[in-house]
Fold each of these.
Amino acid sequence: MLITGALPLAWMVIAAIGDLATSGAGLVSSRTAMLFGNTMRLGLVVAALVGVVGTTCGVLATKTDLPARRLLLALLTFPLFLPPYILALGWFTVLGRQGLVAAVAGGTAGIRASDTFFSLSGTVLVLTIAYTPVITHLVRIGLRSIDPSIEESARLHFTWPRVLWQVDLPLVAPAIALGMLLTFILVVGEFGVPAYLRYPVFSGAVFTEFASFLNIRGAVVASIPLVLLVLASLAVERYWLRTPAQSLGRVRLTPLVVPLGAWRLPAALGTWAYGLITVALPLAGLAREAGGGASYRAALSGAAASIATSVWTAAAAATIVLAVALMLAYLVERSGRTRRNAFDTALLLLFAAPGTVLGISLILLWNRPGVTGLYTSVAILLIAYIAHYTPVAVRAVGVALQSVSPGVEEAARLAGVSWATMVRRVLVPMLRPALAASWGLTFILCLRDLDLAMTVHPPGIETLPIRVYTLMANSPGPVTAALALLMVTLTGVVTVVAGVAVAVARRTNAWS
Amino acid sequence: MELIRLEDVEFSYGDRPVLRGVNLGVQENLVTVLVGPSGSGKSTVLRLIAGFEAPNRGCLSIGDQVVATGSRVFKTPESRGVSMVFQDLALWPHMTVGQTLEFVLGRDVARRERRSRITETLAALGLDERVGARPAELSGGERQRLALARALVTRPRIVLMDEPLANLDPPLRLALLDEIRNLGRRFALTIIYVTHNQQEAFSLGDHAAVLHEGRIEQAGSPRELYERPSTAFVASFLGRCALLPGKFHDGHVETALGMLSGADGDATREDIAVVIRPEDVCIDADGPFNGRVEYVTCLGGTFETTITGPGWRLWALTRDEPRLGSSLRFAVKKTVTVPS
């Protein structure tokens, strides 16, 4: 992690400080102010919307007796696995000048919808849909960890709405705030969607300096405000959102369900409509745009190599990430509090670093005589994936590791078992579901990555997201739409396979 | 007067039956202790009374109102006038002591009344100095008191207590038992107290019911249950005792120990067991029975001595520590018989 992530970022900071004297003047300009304003506006509006929509969805899908809750949750979660620019493309097929709206309501309505779409509103719409599942799931985890007797003790005095409002929501408020902050960090680092919808933000400016003007020094300096924003957000997370565990006793496993009564039907209709409109509608738009089989054949024939590259690099990166994450999670969870916080902060910084910024820092470090073999091969892509996505896997494995009593390891140590054998024979079998889930999650994150891959990919090596994104600007709509749908299908298949693998691992670990 | 009545109440979690025809009457302003082993259905009885579960069959009344019958519920938890102290306390971690009590009193109670009730309750429980503390900042005993304060501040008629002292050390548990008893009297509460600890049952209960495998095995005063158990389970659950299989014979009971006289019980039954409590065994050099000292446990001021003979084992309380393996003569003061 030191070589893949921390060192490049540190190198970049040194380079930025060195260049500040010569190129720093460019930072103080009306353009910088405009980019800063736009980036902040986008981040704050999306974080606020995601907070409201994600919390509502999380509460409805977790605490109520809505019909087919599991299916609904799967539907609401799906956008998280899709690259946001695919969602943008999907919404373009709905709100574009020749989109579904134009087909249904006429050309003028299409033009109006398109103008609104290619602006802050469209960017907010797409990114809100893309990141709402983050909060939905954080709220769900938070609600499921509340001891039902805490709710029952309030139910003796009040009806369910008041219990939800005054007991449950305050208890999950830190999770909501964390989700909003995480969304803010991800949104301000997002490059693909704002660039596609022509909404100028910092990440786009960094990429333009690098890719269009081939000015890596300029890109480094342009990254400074973005890095400062992310660091400020991380400081908020570290110092204000680090709440101690809320549980004061043992937690029963089955959460209580709130009967919606007469509200069940309207709530079900509303939530399902939201899920179908935000997920199914753009996909339907893509399917309509793609048309018949010819587009799919054309898309496949041109993208076979990209699909293969995407799948194998994602699989290789996920496997390496899993091994590294297991070791790091062990270090983080089993070390002292101070060291744990330091590790945690460093890992969070790597994940929070915008893809374009991390990519440029990697290029800055590795694009030099003697190591060009790495920079010009697929290895740089793997290094980038490992640097960016290991922290997610460390968090996932770490949470599972917290539930394993240190006594389990101590018993193995007393029996004379070596540390490596203890990890292999004791920890790995106990953590199997979490490891399977982490592998699947990392695979999907690498598979959908655009910002990082776009920045570091060497000539001649192209992943599927890069191909889709390039085609979005330069190719006929039907072929792009078909390729986007292939990407969605691939993501869907991987999600289902990963889900099945986790379920099987859980079943085989039924003793735990 | 009976305040709560359960009639033929049956309840199951999925296809696992938990209560199988429970009949129980709870007297107003008294402490009723439900005692029984884990999984006997004690907590489920509380959850039914609170309204968190509905019985599958049978009828549940509070006061003169039927609150649930069959699987139909007529009164929701918040409208039953019931408070509860949970085993894990279930305190709200985001609220201070003061906020917790303010919250349960709600806006229906006038502000001045709210203040006076909170002050009175906190003073009664010794929490008046901790109004601004959150649960995480309280000690174990203070958390327990906060749970009690939350249950009492609304002036409920009925307080349900689900093993609230289970996780405390013995001195604190004894102190809080005294407090619960005093608070019950002071606020004229009807308390249903669930425990598997017989010491708590005896020290707190005006009335007690022993639950076993979803049925009320016996109900009565704690002393009555201890001294005249109706089954071997009740006898052994409520305290150490020897259960010697025997047969009635001319007003006496024939056991492996020998003939025992003065046994209470149903003389018409063939298969019986004689219950002998340690305090009913007197070490006496002229006693009719003789056994070998197998084991001695120090109980502080006294010793519990395990005495064995051919086909029997019983326990006696002695002031002096007998020598292991020595022979001991003793008499049995009192016995009671139960169906074996």
Amino acid sequence: MRKTAGNGTWDIEHLLKKAPLQSHNVSITGGGETNSYYISAGYQNQGSNLIGNGGTGADFGYQKYNLRLNQTSIIGKFRTNIILNYTKTRNKSNSVGDNNIFADANRVPHNYSWKDENGNYLTNPVASQYNEYGVLEKGGYNQADNDEIFGAFNGQLSITKDLKLTGEFGGTIQNNGTFFRRTQVNYLPAGVYGNDLTVLDGNSKSLLTNTKLYAEYNKKISDHTFKILAGVSSETYNQKGFQLQKTLTDPLLGTPTTGTIVDTQNSNNSIAVNSTSLLSAFGRVNYSYKDKYLLEAMFREDASSKFATGNRASFFPSVSAGWIVTQESFMEPVKNTLSTFKIRASYGIVGNQNVGNYQYQTTYFNYANAYGFGNNIVGGAGTNIANRDITWEKAAKLNIGFDAGLFDDRITATFDYFRATTSNILAPRADVPFIFGAGSPDYNVAKVRNTGWEASLTYNLRSKDLTQSFSVNIADNQNKLLQLTGDATQTIYNQDVFQLIRKVGEPVTQYYGYETNGFFQNQDDINNSPKIAGNSVQPGDLKFKDRNGDGIIDEKDKTVLGNPFPRYTFGFTYRASYKGFDLSIFIQGVGKRDEFLRGELIEPFHYGYGATVYEHQTDIWSPTNPNARYPILANIGSPSNTNNWRTGSDLYKYNAAYARLKNVNIGYTFGKGVTQKLGIQRLRISLIGQNLATVSKLKFIDPETSEFGNNLNPGSSSNSARQYPLPVFYGAGLDLTF
Amino acid sequence: MKFLKKLLIVSVAVFAAPGCKKLDIAPTDRFSDLTFWQVEANVYNALYNNYSLIYNSGLYFDAEAISDNAYSPSGDLNLIASGNATSQTGKFAGDWNNYYSAIKSCNIFLANVDKNTIISAATKTRLKAETRFIRAFEHFNLAKWYGDVPIVDHDATPEEAQTIARSPKAEVIKFVMDELEAAANDLPSKDAIAATENGRITKGAALALEARVLLYQGDRMADVVTVCEKLMNNQGTNGNYALETSYSALFSDPNVNKNTKESILSLQYVPTLRTWNNFWDFAPRTVGGRVSNMAPTQELVDDYIMLNGKAIKETGSGYVESNPYVNRDPRLTATVVYDRYTWVNANNSTKTIYIKPGTDPVQPGLDEYNAGSQAASATAYYWRKYFDPSALANFVSGNNLHLIRYAEILLDYAEAKQSLGQMDATVWNKTIGALRARAGFNEAGALNYPGAADMTNIIRRERRVELAMEGLRVDDIRRWKTAETVMNGYAHGAKFSVDQNTDNGYIRTQLRKFNPGRDYLWAIPAHDIDLNKNLKQNPDYTN
């Protein structure tokens, strides 16, 4: 929507504000030869870009406090180290969820307003129930308070000059609290939010302990250097939580009052009860000859409580070798040009036990409110179907590369090629029909390969006062699904209005659907073109490619439409210093990426819930605009709307390649002459800018956003473009060293 | 210094100790296979899990939207009703998955319940019979929609699911009937159980489902009569069932809805705890409806007869097109909200619902028909049946949804008798006559046996209006093979079309198509066809 067209305030900008970010760190180091310490304290405060505080307390935002102590003592043959770290974070956010806020803000035309002149929150025919301005200012909040204490003690005994015995003991205590409260907001002319007056208090505690004992033996015999290490370790984790939820609490206090109800479904004593354990033995041998040839071999044997006896333990070896070619005498003649050259290679197997805790055991869970008899509620019991045979995932990783330095390392270059094949991937089977009647538990079924390379080049330029460095890096990574489950060749996932496909031999997750083929330009064109069976269309509707040429558009014409994986990620860094001044510039980007987006920022009058058309959506077909980006407007439920927006095509596809000026930092360090008078060792002031500019074809959303998490889970919800563009950050810094 | 040395020695000892930490960790917040079935309460919870999967409010109301009783703009319902579904249609896969999930739960129960040594054998027999009923009901629904389907009569492995083939529909129906017969023998009559068990599956429910299964076969009418007569004439053994006094109270009055003698089986809900709120998208918007997601058609409205017993098009009916909602079958007002309807609120106050465009003096644009509206009804009708005055905000209701009512048995009986050429005044009085009297008719023209009239149509019309919004209409038009007629062409709304010259001014809501060679069966989900090579697709669907 064009801003000038409306005269109200209902848009996302009115829900956003500038938010300050502060970050302070103080550290002290001290001690002598046998005793040293390090103490640091930090504070960070990042205000939310959303307005409001939910009605009470501080504004929305995130705070972090941390304190770290590190103490090392050497007493003869003993060396001890103690680390204590305490971190407290608090995150206060709104009670309805950012996704809803963006959706409601974006789907209502700009001629409506959030508030009237008397400060009443308004609703309208499009958003007839909620007003998110009111929710942010008065509707309650969700606050997470997390405390973490990490402590580690390790002692090292030097038995002989070459033999050391080390013991480590550490633990992490986490205490995660949640407090949620919804408070009532009334709207005009109608609508109310939060009249259930819910209050939820939840807490989860966990303890992770690590114990490790190992011996190291180092020996150098003439040109041969040996290092041998062997040890055992044990890790255990225990977690337990509870939560209590009440509704119809006191409107002002949120405490129980007449009529307050305990929400039995959401109140429980023992939730998130988890316990795991991992026992390991490990060893490493290093050998080098004349610091020219380097060889390392490692192994671990891990046994995990997540797997049944017999499938529990697994052996993970790895080897690596390096050759520093420039140490060879035959390289002497070129040493002025090629100052450093190292070739390295490694191969190893890594394990992953990423499954739920008791998955190999069939378990049952009782739950409330399954059914009723005679108006009395009864509980139910469900089954977690098990696969007793699950075991470790294994990733075989090969890496080959070199490091080179030219002209006394003024130019340095590195190159790496890698290939990682992960097999026995734990995933639900893709070959189980619905007839089975339950979701498949995880099996060791899938296989994926990642191959890629990474190159970087740095050029350092030094003159009397001016030092500069230019650095570029570029990398590419391609994944390929080698096996899904047994002989299964593909799985299709419905993800909202479009589909995802996992197909053996191709990238792990891809977008799938119809390929568009322009628009039906007139009735003749309609009569003579393949169409989706049974759906009538009009000029201005999307045409799809009849890939199999049978004259009708159906499932068989669907094809892979792209994938969400970034290709050719690149970075460029420039650093310069001149006398006291320093400057750094960092640009980052992705050379190629497809992204499917949906929602009110994509579809005009989105799904009947929205009533907006944004300026970037206005390239709409008409007889005079036959090559538009978007089809003709049509009512939800109409055959045209179904054809254009409900069938899943590359209409939803966007080019998410971008380059971004990520960071600019300009600083000045005062000369010693000035600082020493003030009793300061070092004083630097700086100006910082982040995300200052982005070049991308995708302008209405941050091109970095993706619907996929690290696990590439195709069950994740599709990307509805409901985030605000990445905030631009300006700041100043002060570094002081006494 | 000495202290540190000691500390180091102690610490080394500490490191060594946890080396033998157990890796066999049993969960402490849930039961395992070894412990679960021994506990009596768990067995009941497992049984109730089967009950919870028997059906749901979505399936219940969706069925109406894919019949000629209603229109829904919503995704798959729209696709199926308009004849545009494919083997990829989500509802085909979703429903299939739902039914087989319920079957899985039943099979797990049947495979394990005997591990319990505390519950008496007699009680276990009853619990098993209830579970076998549920499993049979799911298989029946599968066969109804998909034709030949795999029979899964034990807790199958993934490998079995990959190879099991479709059994011919006749075999599935035989399996269902055998199971229901066995269950009926083992189940208690509803009169033999405590009120707190109201809603449990009884002997009567098993017989009533038998009647439905047989009726749907079309060629088992004599058996339908036999089963119905067990329920009508042998109530001492099979349970005392009777028509409720008030038709509307069955669906709205929480007390009647829960305790009526007419209920043979219903989907059970409990206020605030186990609820449904589909009605939020059925009600007029001026009384709290959100969007009209399913709306009654003109075709349904037209099938409600006049108080004098005549169909609206019949000569002498007294029907006036410009004032169409007066002197009609009282079930129309109990079911459908039409223009200038008097809506009775929960507190017994009333409100007029204005649907004709431009007539609402207070809240124009909410309920009024508007061709462009995506929130008001597309047919200019809303629903009243199943309105729950005791519901929480947004129509969150704890009322039951009737799966089998005694009225259905009477209609089954009438249809079977008519089909066998045995319809007469006695049968009429026990069935159609009784239903009309209960509905509130009092004119002889409606109540008395009409003799050699178009009896098949009268019974079918009676069945349609009596059971409207209970999800059975779609079954009827498919088994009568009338779907190819009534699901072809436009579904209409009230006479408020902008274009008063087309279709006599009735709103053209949706253009529907029905391919008789294909659409009497749903497609087997492509997902399962791909993974089980022994599954063959139904005719005319591309895989």
